[in-house]
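task queued by scheduler; priority normal; single chain, no ligands, no partner chains; default sampling; output format set to structure tokens
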Amino acid sequence: MTNPKNKGSILVICSHSDDQVIGAGGAMAKYANEGFDIHTIILSFGESVKPYVRREIITKTRVKEAQRADKIIGGKGVTFLGLKEMHFEQDLKNRGLDKNFKKIIRELKPVKIFTHSSDDVHPDHRATFKIVLRMYKEMKLRADFYTFEVWHLLNIKKRNKPKLVVDTSATFKTKMKALKAFKSQIDLSTFYNYLVLNNFLFFLINIKDLFNGIKHNTKYAEVFYKVR
């Protein structure tokens, strides 16, 4: 039975299984509350975070964490492509996954697409943008296409692209709760990840969203840049 409140699908495409929450978690939760179906495609399992753990174990863990975070924000599901980190474009081509990737997008019929910015410092994030933009053009999609920032947390760079500002004051706590679902990245067995993700990263996200809120006359906000 069709949900009468449904306003369409919103698709978030990212590299690793916490990027969607860092970059757009507040907006995802807000859109879900407004009646949109939120779907996420994650290109890799992010197993390189713990190279000493068997791939199948960390893969299973990351999938469960992403599903848990998705449930917290009110999402409708997460799809993993399982591409090799640092080799997204090559692996996508070698494994012939273009057709399957496009099929997923076509079936979801998104009204909005969110992905990484083209100049993010992480090479996987830049590769993700290139892949999504290429598919957007090849499929001749008409969805609004926006980018978010993950490692430009303080948004030092000036951007001239049209902005979409989403007031996330009511969903900021939901975003932070969802981010904490990724426990495999913040345990004490990997001190660097614990230090960065459990302390510094959470602090920067709070400052970033608070600063965006102040700039746009609200408490918290997420800012996106329109590509198409």
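post-processing summary
- The CA atoms of residues 214 and 220 lie 7 Å apart.
- Residues 191-215 form the longest helix (25 residues).
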